[in-house]
Specification:
8-stranded mixed sheet; about 20% strand; elongated; Rossmann fold; alpha/beta; single chain; about 400 residues
Length: about 400
């Protein structure tokens, strides 16, 4: 996941011994959330089989213009329009020269000439070929056309020589692509905090006061913020959810409201976005028993005291550049209660959740919410998957930050 999530990438594999690395490159791109369509030159199929790359990409590999003898063909124009990026890896000296001079004698070059997306070349060849003036001229022409060159690296080559010409490693190519798209993400360079899940307020070593929150909504928001470029600190109460794998997302697990507040306080001063989606307990036992409380025939009462109000505390010290988002889970007078909380706690946006709506609230994979901002805009959303709800919330945050954040980040 990350900047490559949902990106459509054409991987053009040409005839170089480095073609064996294309298998790992496909695997890494797919793992990062990209859709990968592999094109191969006929000569490239002698280095690595189409079956290998088809299996890893979950798509048939395209080699020729014509699919079969019925006249069905692989449309290079449609391919060029489909892609968000085209990557030649490995890019042989022959293919670089053909692209640089428009010699369209195979499906790869025809697709390159039809592509309206960014194109990246990762050269791979022997030292003398890479240094040859003809190859240097090809690379310069391709750069002059607006293409991107992922430079070959120094190392041991297939010939036994040592020098420049080695294709960049698959991890480096993926990082290059991620950096290219990350620069245009609307939340790039911003820090965010998201709280998620319930808190457990201990009664004794065995029992606690808690609620039914699963953390799904908060985890989805954290992942959406990360996909939009933010670096996210996710502070979660006890949940069964796995640790998110996004490289821009760090998870801190806590138990109680006080622990959640202390974790948030470590990051809030350097964060521009704070989303408080956790279902924090309002009360905790005044005293925690050190041993398990034994059952007896008499009734038992537990004195309770208020927990710290994290939203109100952060709202009181909110800085002008911060966007503070809260949640309101209501059962009656829902809109009025949510609007009151928005003002009382100095929030910029509040997400109203109703316990009265089927498919919404705790435990569901779907949610039905209404977004309300300080400007008075009320945006009811239909019932949808929590990941989709998270994207709507993040888009509302981006819209709120438009006049606050750097204009180039939000254009």
């Amino acid at each position: 996941m990350g900047a490559l999530q949902g990106k459509k990438i054409i991987l053009a594999v040409t005839a170089s011994i480095a073609a064996y690395k294309s298998a790992m490159l496909v695997r890494l791109l797919v793992k990062a959330g990209a859709e990968v369509q592999v094109l191969m030159s006929q000569a490239a199929t002698t280095f690595i089989t189409p079956l290998t790359l088809s299996t890893l990409s979950n798509r048939p590999v395209l080699v020729d213009f014509v699919k079969d003898n019925t006249g069905v063909w692989n449309n290079h124009v449609d391919l060029g329009l489909w892609a968000d990026a085209m990557v030649f890896a490995p890019a042989s000296a022959n293919s670089l020269a053909k692209c640089a001079h428009g010699l369209s004698d195979n499906l790869l070059i025809a697709t390159y000439l039809s592509a309206r997306c960014p194109v990246f070349f990762a050269p791979a060849m022997d030292l003398d070929m890479y240094q040859h003036p003809a190859t240097r001229e090809s690379l310069q022409r391709l750069q002059g056309f607006g293409n991107h060159i992922i430079a070959a690296t120094h190392g041991e080559l297939a010939s036994g020589l040592v020098g420049e010409g080695r294709m960049a490693e698959p991890e480096a190519i993926v990082a290059h692509l991620e950096a290219f798209w990350a620069a245009s993400l609307p939340l790039q360079g911003l820090q965010a905090i998201v709280t998620a899940g319930p808190t457990y307020e201990a009664i004794d070593p065995v029992r606690f006061i808690g609620n039914h929150s699963t953390g799904k909504m908060g985890f989805a928001i954290a992942q959406s913020l990360a996909r939009y470029g933010a670096r996210v600190q996710l502070v979660s109460g006890p949940t069964a959810l796995p640790t998110p794998s996004h490289t821009h997302l760090q998870l801190t697990r806590v138990q109680s409201a006080q622990e959640m507040y202390e974790a948030v306080s470590q990051y809030d001063t350097q964060s521009q976005i704070i989303v408080l989606s956790a279902a924090v307990a309002d009360y905790r036992p005044a005293a925690v028993a050190t041993q398990k409380i034994k059952k007896n025939d008499a009734d038992m009462s537990i004195p309770l005291v208020r927990t710290i109000d994290i939203a109100q505390t952060l709202g009181q010290r909110k800085r002008p550049e911060q966007t503070l988002v809260g949640f309101a889970l209501e059962t009656e007078q829902e809109l009025a209660n949510a609007q009151g909380k928005l003002q009382r706690k100095n929030l910029d946006l509040i997400v109203l959740n109703s316990m009265n709506d089927p498919g919404a609230g705790f435990g569901h994979n779907t949610n039905l919410v209404t977004l309300i901002n300080r400007q008075g805009t009320i945006q009811p959303l239909p019932l949808m998957d929590k990941a989709e709800v998270a994207n709507h919330i993040v888009q509302a945050i981006i819209a709120l930050r438009s006049p606050k954040a750097n204009p180039e980040q939000l254009s």
